[in-house]
Write a structure and sequence with these properties.
The complex is a heterodimer. Chain A is mainly α. In chain A, about 80% of the residues lie in helices and about 0% in strands. Chain A has a single domain (about 5-90), classed as Orthogonal Bundle (Helix Hairpins), CATH 1.10.287.3510. Chain B is an all-alpha fold. In chain B, about 75% of the residues lie in helices and about 0% in strands. The radius of gyration of chain B is 21 Å and the shape is extended. Classes of the chains: A mainly alpha, B mainly alpha.
Amino acid sequence: MMPVGHYLFLSFALFMIGAIGVITRRNVIVILMSIELILNAVNINLVAFSRIFGDVHGQIFALFIIADAAAEAAVGLGIIIAFFRNRETVRADEMDLLKW
Amino acid sequence: MLDSILFYSFAGTAILSAALMVTRRNAIHSAVFLITTLLATAGIFLQLRAEFLFIAQIILYVGGIMVLFVFVIMLVRLDVPLHHITFRFQKWVAFFVAMALTGEVGVMFWYVRQLPGAGLLTAPAPTADKLPPNSEQFAKVLFSNYLLPFEIASVLLLVAMIGAVVMAKKRT
């Protein structure tokens, strides 16, 4: 395998792209997809260190993160559908029901 | 040699399509580029000899979560006329947050470089004829050491399923 710095840098780059996506995009669906990208970037770190230390605990943690991502996507998309039914929009800056 | 070719091709694909995903206007294009990123990450997992996660990544992420995303994108009408109430400083806020995080990670990398030999940490090369069985080790540890978290994860998925159904249900 490559030295671990390469994997750390790849993970960092994907994490950063995801963070920029969360901050700059206004479409809530794309924001959720950026969050998935961030979770995925973390998994690369876990699997790389699991390979270095030669045990599978990091991979199991990555599997739990994938399960969490699935749960989060299901609930988030349910919220988006419910919100779209109320307000006819998926733009983040129009979601101001709690602001008064 | 082959390792580095595989790594750089997968990593380049992942980063390039992640950047395209964030910058495309059309949400469907974003979803397709995110699928490409996830597949490239699955390739990275395979290169790290995590075969079970490679399959789980493709089946769960690409086959499950992304299909859900594409389904919702199709369901929700996206091309409504926009009101153009935009928060003008958003790009700058994003830029400064990105710069701060980049600086932080740069300091971390620089600091790690000071430690002797720490930046070149790498795994011992496995013997070519006999690889350790990944899925077996995975299952052994998952169902002995991590049995309770496994059950909690199943409860979490059940709660998320019920929550998604309740959220998306039409109110009568």
